[in-house]
Amino acid sequence: MSGPHVILTIAIVLLVLGAIALPVGIRLLSRARAVPRVQVPARAISQVPLMAGNVITVEYPGPDGRPLRTDVFAALRRGLGATPMFSGYVYVNPADPTDVKTRPQGKVGPGWTVIIIGSVALGAGVVLLLVALVGLWMQSIPVVG
After folding, report:
1. What share of the chain is helix, strand, coil (3-state, %, to 5)?
2. Is the pLDDT assigned to residue 144 strictly greater than 90?
3. Could you read off the pLDDT of 71-89 as tens digits, one per residue?
4. Which of 22, 115, 129, 143 has the fewest CB neighbours in a 10 Å radius?
């Protein structure tokens, strides 16, 4: 196999991986956002600072009225329109009272990660495909001499 054929094979593999990763990431993202959550008042018991945010131990009322405690990660948000890390409320999945978040949506990080990886794979696949096609075209030009 010559150089353009190897690049063409890599390009096809990247295009297939990107085409598979994008719908999987979109499905993960939509599934995380589809979990119904109820806003419940809570109070912060303790807070452990990390580089990307804080791990906050919160106490909130359970379905039977007894207080429940859990640790939630609150990402550090900055910039225009950024919501506070913890505003005195948590969002609880009614089907699973231990599924608690500081924002109304679920865990969207894995979905975005797969979408970004799929997009990068598609972009690299397109670039390598163009490079391989140009290489194959240049090999087809007859050499005079």
Report:
1. 45, 30, 30
2. no
3. 988 887 777 776 667 888 9
4. 143
Number of Cβ within a 10 Å radius of residue 49: 9
pLDDT in tens, 37-51: 899 999 999 999 888
Q: How many CA atoms lie within 13 A of 28 on its CB side?
A: 16
Structure pTM?
Answer: 0.68
Pairing of strands 67-75, 89-93: unpaired
User: Does residue 108 contact residue 32 with C-beta atoms inside 8 Å?
Assistant: yes
- CA 108 from centroid of its chain's CA atoms: 5
User: Could you tell me the residue ranges of all domains in the chain?
Assistant: 1-34+107-145, 36-104
Q: Would you list the DSSP string of 59-78?
A: EEE-TTS-EEEEEEEEE---
